[in-house]
Amino acid sequence: MLTYCVLNLIFPLVTSVENILVIHALWNASSIPANIKKFFLSLAFSDLAVGLIAQLMSGVMVTALIIAAYKNYSNSFLCPTILTFCYFVNFFLAGASFFNVIAIGIDRFLAITLHLRYRELVTSSRVFMTLVSVWLMSGVAACIYVSLIYTIVKYHQNQIHSELQLSNSAPKARQLVRERKSACNALVVYIVFVTCYLPYLCSMIMLVAHGNSPSSFTIAQMISLFLVFLNSSLNPVIYCWRYHEIKKRVKSTLKKIVTCT
C-alpha cells in the first residue's frame, strides 16, 4: 500500500514532464502526417491529464486513508460525492486515452486500405469531429461506469446486510511505406495499451464477480490501476522510440532547458 502511494506521487511528475515534452515536439514536427499528428496530440493531452489529475488524485486519496488508519482518524472525508467525482475523473481520462488509441488504430487501418482515397475521405474537419466525439464518448462512458459502480455497490451492501441479519509510385511508394510505418507505430501503442489495461479489466471482473473481495483482490486492483496510469508514462517513450523527429526535438528542448539553468 505504501509503495502504491509513493509510486502514484512520483509518477505524475514523470508522466507530466514526458508528455509536455512530447506535445511540444509533436506540435513542431513536420515529418509526421497531419491526421496522425492530431490523434497523437489528443492522446498526449489525455495522458498528461491522467498524470496531473487522475494518478495524483489517486495517490493523495490512498495516502490520506493510510494516515487516517495509522492515527485513528475518521475517513469520513471520503464522502460519496468525492468518491463519485474521483471515479468519474479517473474513468473519463482513462476512457479518453482508450478511445484515442482506438481512433489511431482505425485511422492507420484506413490509411493503408484506402491508399489515395484516404486524403479525400479522412479530411481535417472529420478528424476534428472524431476527436470531439472521442472526448464526448469518454464523458458518457464515465457516467455509465459511475452509475454501474453505484448499482453494484448498492447490491452488495444489501446482500451483506441480509447476510448479517441471517448470521447476525516513387512518391506513392514512399507514401505507402510511410503509412505502413505509422501503422506499425500505432500497433506498438496498441500492444502497450492492452498490456497495461488488461490486468485492470480482469481485476474489475473478479471484483464484481466476488463482491466482498479479500484483501488480495484489492491489492491486485491497486497494482493493475497503477499499470493503467503507467501507460500514460510509456506512450511518450514510444513516440520518442518510433519517431526520430520527436526524439530529436525532445532532446533539443531538454538541452535548451539544461543550458538555461
TrEMBL record:
Superkingdom of origin: Eukaryota
Location, primary (coarse class): membrane
A Pfam family of this chain: 7tm_1
Official protein name in the record: G-protein coupled receptors family 1 profile domain-containing protein
Native source species: Porites lobata
Membrane topology: Multi-pass membrane protein
Lineage of producing organism: Eukaryota, Metazoa, Cnidaria, Anthozoa, Hexacorallia
Gene3D superfamilies: Rhodopsin 7-helix transmembrane proteins (1.20.1070.10)
Stored InterPro entries: GPCR_Rhodpsn (IPR000276), GPCR_Rhodpsn_7TM (IPR017452), TAAR (IPR050569)
UniProt domain G-protein coupled receptors family 1 profile: residue ranges: 18-239
Keyword field contains Ion transport: no
Membrane spanning stretches: 7-27, 39-70, 82-106, 126-153, 187-207, 219-241
CDD domains listed in its UniProt record: 7tm_classA_rhodopsin-like (cd00637)
Family label: Belongs to the G-protein coupled receptor 1 family.
UniProt xrefs under SUPFAM superfamilies: Family A G protein-coupled receptor-like
Keywords: Cell membrane, G-protein coupled receptor, Membrane, Receptor, Transducer, Transmembrane, Transmembrane helix
Subcellular location: Cell membrane
